[in-house]
Amino acid sequence: MIHVQDHWTARMVAVYLEEAADTLRRLPEKRVQGYGSTWPDIVQDTWDAYGQSEARTRLGPPTARAIDQMDRTLPWLRWLDGDDQKLVWERANGRRWKAIAGTRGIDRSTAWRRWSYALHVIAARLNVGAEPPTTTEMANTCQAVGGRLQFLQHVRARPVFDDGEPGGRDC
Fold first, then answer.
1. H helices within the chain, ranges in order?
2. CA distance linking residue 12 with residue 120, whole number of Å
3. Which range is least confidently modeled, 25-34, 75-84, 109-118?
4. What is the signed CA dihedral for 147, 8, 130, 170, rounded to 10 degrees?
5. Would you tell me how many other CB atoms lie within 10 Å of the CB of residue 118?
6. pLDDT value, residue 113
7. What is this structure's pTM?
8. Over the Cα atoms of the chain, what is R_g?
9. HSE (CB half, 13 Å, CA atoms) of 78?
10. What is the structure's pLDDT at 116?
11. Which has the closest alpha carbon to 97: 114, 118, 80, 85?
């Protein structure tokens, strides 16, 4: 099992994903290394500097424990198909239901139901003790099957013959 939890619920999964999104937001920005100067910064008078640039405040960097937790939590999204991954991640980042539903052309309650179903899928997989597939395992899966059917075959965790009979190969 990934974490030391007896029973996972959809709410617990949502909290862990929100914490992972917050940790990712607090990581330092990626900067392109370019030309630099050894000259000191120009110290401007407060009257000169007022209103010229917007002050940016950031939360402090995340702790090592938070980063480790984020690294264990983000692979959970691999158990979902692409659209559900995006929906769950947008909601974890605090995006409003109206905006999420508007970009997909669905009703807010439909977006909520899909989000809730996705969280329950993750919680069920965690309760079974399953490990998220690695990137190489996902690349080795059969690409001939559509996204949701391929996901359902992963959930089933039983091999399937070409003719649909259990016990054979996936493709």
1. 10-26, 46-49, 64-73, 82-92, 97-104, 108-128, 135-139, 147-156
2. 10
3. 25-34
4. -30
5. 24
6. 96
7. 0.66
8. 22
9. 18
10. 96
11. 114
The mean per-residue pLDDT over the stretch 32-57 comes to 69
Instruction: Check pLDDT > 80 for residue 151.
Output: no
Residue 82 to residue 85: CA distance in whole angstroms: 5
Give the pair of three-digit tokens for residue 90: 């947008």
User: What tokens were used for 45?
Assistant: 């008078």
Distance, CA of 25 to CA of 102 (rounded, Å): 24
Tokens 């439909």 identify what position? 110
> Region 6-21: what's the mean pLDDT?
94
Q: Where do we find the tokens 């003719």? A: 163
Alpha carbon of 6 to those of 19, 78, 130, 166: distances in Å? 20, 22, 14, 31
